[in-house]
Amino acid sequence: MALEHADVQRAAHLARLGLDDNEAARYVDDLGRILEMVDQLQRVDTDGVAPLAHPLDATQRLRADEVTESDERERFQRCAPLVEKGLYLVPRVVE
Amino acid sequence: MHDKTLRELADALGAGEFSSRELTQYLLGRIDRLDGDLNSFITVTFEQALAAADAADAARARGEAGPLTGLPLALKDIFCTQGVKTSAGSRMLDNFVSPYDATVVEKLAAAGTVSLGKTNMDEFAMGSSNENSHYGPVNNPWDLAAVPGGSSGGSAAAVAAGLVPAAMGTDTGGSIRQPAAFCGITGLKPTYGRVSRYGIIAYASSLDQAGPMARTAEDCALLLNAIAGHDLRDSTSVARGVPDYTAELDAPLSGLKIGLPKEYFGEGLDPAVADTVREAVRVYESLGASVHEVSLPHTHYAIPAYYVIAPAEASSNLSRYDGVRFGHRCDAPADLIDLYKRSRAEGFGEEVKRRILIGTHTLSEGFFDAYYKKAQQVRRLIRQDFLDAFEEVDVLMGPASPTPAFDLGAKKDPVSMYLQDIYTIAINLAGIPGISVPAGFVGGRPVGLQVLGTHFAEERLLNVAHRFQQATDWHLRRPAFAEENA
To answer: What is the mean pLDDT of residues B412-417?
Structure first.
């Protein structure tokens, strides 16, 4: 499946990754060759093969619904770029 | 002291030949003198190391020393370490001081080990040469013009250069085994779920696994004893007892059935590497093993499947770096979208962006079935290849990498770099364990023999590797770099 400039810009936007047009042009080429390599998968007959998500086919373990974590907001916010009164600050979203 | 194994150092500490503080100071001195030429450490934790060494010496004086008490090691900078910068080799986390310890870090500290610092790596563990680090490339102590391999390149180079006797790495597609091979040390990737991933900065969660890198299989066994086990904080860790991995090291190999996958000796393999591996297999025959050709028919599809699954998981895992809660944040964002986009554009390096874009594209609407679902189906076929082979033989052997370490800057094209991992990547897709063992040299650069076993066959792999190291001395060879600077 060929890759267009618009595909790269779309993926960059979905991933919230700033790319200028020059960078995007470079990635069209790189990603195109990677996808060409990946397209070899289409040659494999996988009819009736269940997808494998976990190498041991394990499923998510459940536990009792009990509080096990303590409130460590202050400690965890020490590595945040900008906080005030326990809140993470970002540019205004709603005017 | 710099070329001893963990076991030898433990014996010397036990006999009172020197203290953990003396050993730690000596190795910190070597790091200070030599690491300028290697760049294997991102952070050296001088003060914490000496404090931990003193605590270990005090424990020993009280008669409370365990097998690892007072032994120095290093941690790949992907293991969250409380109060210490944990960068994952990325500008994104250059300012990140972890508020908590990874389970592996906690367990190694509880065992009395002394961490000397955090080692260099490809950014977010994405790479096979350590050239993708924000902190610059690492040089291979066997030849400073060569790469150490990746992504655990700093850990491998530090052990090979005698800066530490052992280091922890992680392996998502070969990142323990390939650098171990390139640097002439022993590196074990355990079964998926054997070691907790809690606090290990995530790359591809269904493939990531931590393991030891050291001079001998015996040392790897000692370390695996300390780090393996179920962890309530990692839902994918396996609830299964942990044996004493040193117990079976000396078991005889007579009757061992070795399979040589024919696909691992085909096109693209350096003939001199093939000869080195076949020579190692002959050593096993002399120890009583029999050799059988086997086939892993889907080998060719492992790299394509990996480059769908790993980037897809990475694009999801790395969405947490948003410039809001931790990590890099751009200056003066105009609005929230600008904050996300510029923080991530500035914080991530080129290879990381490439994989985020691939993963986002293949998971996006209209592409999911053709890429992600297809790759997961092929993944099952790849795993089945191994399970079928292990019906016939006990272990598989082959090269860890198609060539010895290549030169820095030699592989500029991403796809040719990806193809380097042809012999290691399928193992992560299947979730089985693998170990790389020093088996010789080509052009003065080390070659690794890779030994593979079925799920939870770590004891067997360590036994098979240990017996080889009793019969050969490849693992005892040291680079001139380490000896001239002794």
So the answer is: 91
